[in-house]
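Q: Could you fold this chain for me?
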Amino acid sequence: MSPGSEPERDDTGLPPVDIEIPDDARELERDVQAYHRELRALRRHQRRTRWHRSVGRDGIVLPLLACCLILALITGTLLTVFTATSEQNLTGLPNSGTSGLSTGRGGSATAGRSPDIVVAGLLPPAAIAVDGRALPLDAVREAMIVLVPPGCNCTSTLAWLADVATSAHAPAYVVYNRQTKAEVQRLYGQLASRWRAVFMLADDTSDALTRPASFPPGMSAGHLTAILVAPDRTARYASGLSPGDSSTELIQAIID
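A: Sure. Below is the predicted structure, expressed as structure tokens.
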């Protein structure tokens, strides 16, 4: 239909319109660009709507999480500063119990109460059984032998002695006899695997070490006792031990 002409009969019932068809499709380029601009504007509007809706739904959670994170960072920084300051202030104080002392073998020792150590000379001419094999006592050098009395609740002290033997790079034996076998095995089972790896169980079948007469004068067989054997086979007895004692003298008695 040309513009201005009379409408023909239309059986569809639609109103009459004037339609203009361009001769060149390039004339529609501006309309196409306008259409795409409208689509981009619609997508931007949808993205803004989704973002505002998400922020509105989590409007309390996100600021709360940010505040918790900031508080955790501030707390961690303060704790680090105060801890470092406290350690510097405690360095060099007597009886601090945490200062490292050189042992001469690359190990470390803890400061504390000096244990009672008695020189007893050479070990008796006997043998103990380790893993079913006889170990002559005169062949033991630079070692620690621990004697456990009956009813000894001394797991923590045994663990501490294992650390002492490790610092001295010395073998360690936990000796038992017929009366203390069950007690020693119970204590041995309570030790952590790293301490059990240090100790070797030894059976004093002849009671050469565990009978009361074998102890130096003034020492009782009723206390946990560590026999420290020096390189020259000199045996020193240390009794009444506890994890708060100084390990320096024990280590020196083994390696000197």
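A (continued): Residues 17-90 form one domain.
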